[in-house]
Amino acid sequence: MRKPFYRQLYVQVVLGIAAGVLIGMAWPSTGIAMLPLGEGFIKLVKMVIGPVIFCTVVSGIASMQGMKQLGRIGGKALVYFEIVSTIALIVGACAATLLHPGHGFNIDPSTLDTGAVRNYAAKAEDQSMVKFIVNIIPDTLISAFSRGDILQILLVSILVGFSLNALGDRVQLVRDMLDQVTHSLFRIIHVVTKAAPIGAMGAIGFTVGKYGLGSLLPLLKLIATFYGVAIGFVVVVLGGICAMAGVKIWRLLRYLREELLIVLATSSSEAALPQLMDKLEKAGCSKQVVGLVVPTGYSFNLDGTNIYISLSILFIAQAMNIDLTLWEQLTIFGVAMLTSKGASGVAGAGFVTLAATLAVVPTVPLAGLVLLLGVDRFMSECRALTNFMGNAVACIIVSAWEGELDRSQLKEQLGDAALGRAGYPAR
Fold this sequence. Notes:
This protein has 427 residues and is mostly helical. It has a single domain (5-418), classed as Proton glutamate symport protein. The chain is 73% helix and 0% strand. The longest helix is centred in the N-terminal third of the chain and has 33 residues, at 67-99. The protein is globular. The two termini are 30 Å apart.
């Protein structure tokens, strides 16, 4: 039986968001005090992210016919990530060039107080591609889970999956046990998700109470440009990619509406990572593809962050009346492709990534970050939403690319109207 509308999670989350906005506007101090509600919900979800990734990846690799399949899926995913990430950077730069969101500010860099961004600059200096690669290797098998580092957990999971696959039928009992544990973990997530409306109310209440909607006015054009470009990217670019797999983006958005609202409220795409993996499996993506593509994409496929970086850097340059040559813009793209990976998993990763990119491109002063500090929190929701949808689409397209997309399940979950003409085979 269909649930009454007031018992549906997405309706409850919308009401929680609305309540948080009202409380933050009417009683700012109360809104700020509600932060633990949002943080508590995110911690509850992160508590099970590691075990979910481990069980899903290990179970998927252990059931593969051979290790060539793993390399093929991983290779296709990485190629897809780099192509779409590059498109996202170009889209952000084109939007800044055409719409000029920074013109008219006429900022003198020497008048900016850089004290507020020193912490982000310090984190950015601590990031490098070599250190990022070395940090993928955990100190111990257990420390990967205690730190909650997604890439470290993924590495451990792949190694364990390899070993179980090599041992074959001798460890069938272990495989069966992992499947049962996975089902139990997703049941835990189902229970935890019921607290999403409270978490959404706390997170939004804090944001509005601390920063206030009035802080948006000076940079309203930049924010409007970013949201407009991100929405256009999802509809046109990701929608076009979905169409290649025979899926309509509107139906996918509707299918993931609860998770999107959770991401919107918490400004964290990780808050809906386990739910995304569960729903993609239910929608017909194979366990192997979901287990590899989604966790990897959370570090390597950050479309929203890439749009934000290129748009923000050009905004700062325009606000300071700095003309960047085509070569300097291309340099920014190249650096951003690296820094967006190196800063993954760092608190305030989008802002840290921007700082790391500016540090390598001295033409635009690092002091320009001050211009964005007050509104970054309002832009982080859009970054997280775009990153989330980018990884959902990546998983579907790689599944279709591999011939591992069950269209009967997809039709059942998304509806008859969701499917168009597919450009890839399906199982």
